[in-house]
Amino acid sequence: MKPTLNKTTSPGRFVVAGLCAMAVAMARLNADAQYDYGQPGDKNYMTNTVGITTPGLGNNITQKIIAPRAQVNATFTTESIAVDGVREAAWDATTAYPIANKFLANMSGVSPSATAEGTVRMLWDGPVLYVLVEVTGDSTKADTGTPAWTAGPFNSTTATTDGLFVFMDVFNDKWGFENDTAGVFLLGANPALTSVTSFNNSGIPSLGSFFNPNNQDYSTRLKAFKSSGYNAAGPVNYTYEFALQIEGWGDAWDRELTNGTKIGFDTAIFNQGASFTYLSKTLYFGTNEGGSNLPNSERPRNKDWGEVTLTGWDGTTPFAYSGWRADEDIRFWNSKSNPGGASGNGDLSVVWTPESKALFVGAKNDYLALKASGTATREQLEAAVEQVCQTFTLLTWGDTRFPDPRDLPATQTLPNVWKFFDPSKGTGGMVTNLAEWAQRKEEIKELAQFYEYGYKPKLGVDYTINVTTNAYNGTGTSATVIAQVIPTNVNWIAGATTNVTVTVTFPTAGLPVGQKAVIGFSTSMTANGIANVGLPTNWGADIRSDAGAWGTPNASPNGNTNRTGTFYTIFPYRRNSTFGDVSYCMATATGTSIFLDILQAACAANPALDAKIDPTRAITKGFSINGKLAFIAAVYDDRVKAVIAGGAGATGPANWRYNCQGQEFSFTGTPFYNAGAEAIVSHGTEGPGNSYRHNRVRETELFRHFMDYGHMYSHEEGAYGYGRYSRMPFDNALLVACLAPDRAIMIDTNMNDYNDGAVTDNMSLQVAKFVYKGLRADPEKYIKFNSGNYVSTGDPHGAAPAAPEGRFFSDFFYGTATQTAADVTKLAMDPYSLLVCNGQTQTPYDFYWGGFNTITGGTGGISGTDGWFSYYLNPLGVTRGGFLLNRRTNQVSQQVTIRNTSTASVKGPIYLVLDSLSGNTTLVNASGTTSGGKPYYVASAGDLAPGAALTFVLTFTNPASGGISYNPLTPPSL
Amino acid sequence: MKTTRMILTLLGAAALAVAGRATLVTLNTSSLTAGGTYYVDFQLNNGSGGAGNSAAISGFTFGGGGVFTPTDIGLIGGAAGDLSSTVWLNDSSPFNEFFQAFTAGSSLSFDLRLSNNVDAPIPDIFGFAILDENLFNLATLSPIADQFLIVELNGSSLDFQAYAGVDGVTSPGVPESAVTAGLVAVAMAGLVGIRHRMIRTSIAA
Questions:
Q1: Tag placement on chain B: N or C end, fewer CB within 10 Å?
Q2: How far is CA B23 from CA B42, B63, B141, B182, in A?
Q3: Least CB-CB distance to A893: which of B46, B122, B145?
Q4: Which of A881, A951, A963 lies nearest to residue B152, judging by beta carbons?
Q5: Predicted ipTM?
């Protein structure tokens, strides 16, 4: 429900909200016990990368954190707290909690003899949490150095930086990536410091922390800080005081703060060259935090951070005034994250509807005017803050061909692939035949272009091809074709004609006589009869900087910024345009299609080339980011008959709604076992926040609008993922399904590359299998898994040996028989379809996600059939005759005919399932019973040709009374 | 007897609805044991419980045989009558059957009138069989239930599917238009007396 615009702030709001929050807090109390990872259906405590690594082992060995989290109470105060490093009287009402979990400075082990330790006290006044740390046992002044965050171990005895590491998870939601409401930073002990620092990944300049007001992707949570400076004489060597905003922002603008509200928090006293002493953390993690022993703010191990509980508020005393939430909204509005905000003036943004923009701008200006007046009452200011917050939440995307993400319904399970988004399409809004499936595929692909990837230019509409070099004469191992790609500038603006060169390397072996070579994009299968063309490079780039993504981000609301690459030369990027905002994924997919366009045009004009290759049949392959690109290229071009997506994950085949973090597996006794695989804890799948923070160009900016600015890792109740991606009217399993019924996909990923699609890519393929079945195609022919074994040390982000792939696709395209029996077995096996969970009794799909019935929206649990996975097209018409009794056999017979009413062959076996057979009889000549106990008859083991019919007789026992009734079903599988 | 009589009365009323073309069905029974006891068996079974259908069968001849005495009749569901006059069937129950003993002669013939109302998705069905003295169907070449004649009442023109017996009883003669070419070939071996009787009047009770 949208927030209303007449809500006002008052102490009363906090009272009502407080009561609600207390109930919520009580409800969460039990669930807030130490995270146990293995809960099936646990949707509340998902992080998307890491739990904790095993000391001394590689970064892919995960383990449970079983130590209880430190518990700290913050006491409510109405006193004005000066953040000055001095312990004033107000702190006397608080409890001093020990900071005493001691580790070596390089975090390679515990250090009971370390001397540095301390206590922490906490106060809160409503919107702000105040923290006071008193450090003892560190009498050596060391406060001038700068830590080397990426070149650890940070245990040098010559550098001079002591201080506090501060860890806060504002909503205590334990996301494993540093995000806008969870982070880590260092407060150096130097009292003169005016800024703080944290881990910085130079490759990801958007990575920051919530102390940094210059990073618009993060809320500015560090309100104030001050060290007292050293007192070598002790007993307290230095006192640190700091203040943290704990209000909600973005979607959580009315977050309730009350007694019982919990905040994730930890702090560590760093004694240069000597020790780390933590409040809560009890496990060390040397060398496993990005090459440094320093707390890595990119991937915080936040499951063992302590918890702060707010206490002591009487329920009626007004909180301290705060305009912070409105200030944060305005900071975002004027930042480069507000698409089109120019020169720091968000009012110039043009991506919002005029109505929603006018509401926000009006509220913003009213608030700023009141704030500047110096005469506004608190009530006036609070009302103005509320208006800003609510109108900010209501900002609506200006391109309204599809709804704003906020206005889409939340669906925690995968959207129905068979149900049109537009209910006027299909038959009653449903897909009932192949023609309607073709329409539905186009709708799914349109939705994904609008919301996720940006629009793909079309040949003949947005560009034309003019082949200029096409000299292949039938000799040589390769051919080079050059063509002009000429933009029409119909949907894009100021595109430039560009020469594109395509070089085809012909097969060296394996191409059957009389056949033309399939085009393989980066497949390296020339020995298997498949020609090779490099997957288009430099059509875009995986840019992670604001400038690279958006040029001078706010320089020109409608201008062509400097996103580079061939694609953006032909189809210039425009930040404020649905057509102009095209992702790197779609840019490369377009390049792939243009390559094929060029080759088709070249073949049409050059018989020698035409005799060698068939550009209407292609296969794409890529790994990691290239796996995403290869996947999108296949989805959006029917000439691409197959794709090998390796380590692709998010933005590729993996679903946004499902995250496998915390899942536990035992691969003991399976073909994928290596030492360590008997007890794996998955650290989860890359999520949408990764795109927001790391990769500015993999998706569109509208895609990020599914996340709430300021709380992009917010978690909808009942969701496995985060953001508001449960509102996406599609998901990526549906894109995989768009390959059905006659195109292939293969996963090529190490079995435990969880961040990059292990489990989640496979899950999408398994879901897509049901679509192939529903279309009466054979999914086992088209969906394959080339999974590597468990990688016990080192980075698991890698691919399985490729040789079986070449043999498979030779057979797939050319009808050869090159696969070995081992190939066939291996490529058919999804490691996560094995019984590796719950004591090796269930698959993860069943144990953690309720089976494919639940995943596809069913409510009947694992064995239910009300999910859309059981839906199928039914081109088979069933005609039943009457029942006649044979007194010699004392059985009743009925003649039945099944006819293929379509123009396509129907994959066999052809089953007739007798659903709801009346209880007064049994089917005497049943071929068997389904898992649901329904008798079935196999009418044909083979396929049924178009128009062909099968006539057979069903024989029943003679009912003692009553007639025989049943519902005839002809499912594609049992 | 009283019960049978009541059913007969009711069926008489129902049979008034049986209008349309009467079909003479003739069966060569010379391969049966002359003078042996058999049973004529008719079924009119309900399909999906929709529109009702009825059958009236009369004019029985036995080619030198006759109705067995003492009368031995089986009536199940919506069945009534006897071979000496008219047999009535309606689909008031899922399974409706009439059988009565007769002494075999060289042939067997009767006039068959069927209503033809649509019952979907499963049509009503009419079947004619001959049972032996143990009330077992004589085997036939029919795809189901050892019948000599099967007629599905599906609202379109009646399709008389006739089948020969496996022990020499030829398939009954029925209107050619209702018999597939293959079945006609079978029937030709001993078929006699095929003709239609275009009787459009109701059958009296």
A1: N
A2: 15, 18, 22, 20
A3: B145
A4: A881
A5: 0.83
